[in-house]
């Protein structure tokens, strides 16, 4: 008789989707090595050995009106995060060009704050126009909640993809944030899609959620047809309500989660994001568990790895870089 991993692997390879109960069964009963190997096989079938490099820049930091309990940029908490207003167009372009030279093919700019409408929108549109003119990278933006008409304007300005994380399941979200609603987040994703933007949305592991919450979030992302999914692990920041909490998730759990996410949405681009230091010297293992993208350089408020070292890690794992112009060896 086939075990749970091989029978669900067969199901996925045949083009069928697994349901939440099956995902939970994998989480509870699959043997780790077998689970990771199966997930890697699914990644290989659906995405080959292509990997994309995302670079991010925080162009407005801190003083956020929201109370997301993990976030160093919330005005509710006393953290050491640097606060600054929207940076100038030239500074963003100069920063982006440096990333492009290093092989980054997807460049994301992010702003703290509840909603895009709280920003100097014309300046943000100008930044996208300048980036479209002066770089060839795919442009991604994370500016909080979005209105439908704003999504159209962002697309016109050159944005390719809107980034807005669900963070966790709908049920657990109320434990994470009380100043806006999960439905607001889902609507933002829908508005972006309606305007013809690609969407990127994922979550954070280690907020205190259960495995069921993680699976539910991934099921919601599948229903929303989100195909770029950042996978983050909590990096506790002093001063936030979760700041003094030891990271409650083990390295093995992180890898198992990545594998289960890949089983749930076989074709998605799973992007290895913040908190990956948790895997220490074993960060390459995430790619053997089903990951297909990576955030390189610094994260929004925390330092990251050296880009060249990440590229070398990917080369050693046999990956090639995806770019809008096709793929080429790294
Ligand atoms: S809305 Fe964004 S910037 Fe503001 S506290 Fe939440 S995660 Fe942080």
TrEMBL record:
- E.C. number: 2.8.1.6
The residue ranges of the Radical SAM core domain are 46-267
The record's section on SMART domains has: BATS, Elp3
> Pathway it acts in?
Cofactor biosynthesis; biotin biosynthesis; biotin from 7,8-diaminononanoate: step 2/2
Q: Which residues bind [4Fe-4S] cluster?
A: 64, 68, 71
Instruction: State the reactions this protein catalyses.
Output: (4R,5S)-dethiobiotin + (sulfur carrier)-SH + 2 reduced [2Fe-2S]-[ferredoxin] + 2 S-adenosyl-L-methionine = (sulfur carrier)-H + biotin + 2 5'-deoxyadenosine + 2 L-methionine + 2 oxidized [2Fe-2S]-[ferredoxin]
Q: Which GO terms describe its molecular function?
A: 2 iron, 2 sulfur cluster binding; 4 iron, 4 sulfur cluster binding; biotin synthase activity; iron ion binding
**Enzyme group, top EC level?**
transferase
Needed cofactors, names only, are: [2Fe-2S] cluster; [4Fe-4S] cluster
Which Pfam families does the UniProt record give?
BATS, Radical_SAM
Q: Could you tell me what the cofactor note in this record states?
A: Binds 1 [2Fe-2S] cluster. The cluster is coordinated with 3 cysteines and 1 arginine.
Q: Which GO terms describe its biological process?
A: biotin biosynthetic process
Q: Which UniProt keywords apply?
A: 2Fe-2S, 4Fe-4S, Biotin biosynthesis, Iron, Iron-sulfur, Metal-binding, S-adenosyl-L-methionine, Transferase
Quote the record's binding site residues for [2Fe-2S] cluster: 140, 200
Top-level taxon: Bacteria
| Xref: InterPro entries | Aldolase_TIM, BATS_dom, Biotin_synth/BioAB, Biotin_synthase, Elp3/MiaA/NifB-like_rSAM, rSAM, rSAM_sf
Family, per the entry?
Answer: Belongs to the radical SAM superfamily. Biotin synthase family.
Instruction: Describe its partners and assembly state.
Output: Homodimer.
Give the function comment from the record: Catalyzes the conversion of dethiobiotin (DTB) to biotin by the insertion of a sulfur atom into dethiobiotin via a radical-based mechanism.
> What name does this protein carry?
Biotin synthase
Can you name the source organism?
Answer: Gottschalkia purinilytica (Clostridium purinilyticum)
Q: Gene encoding this chain?
A: bioB
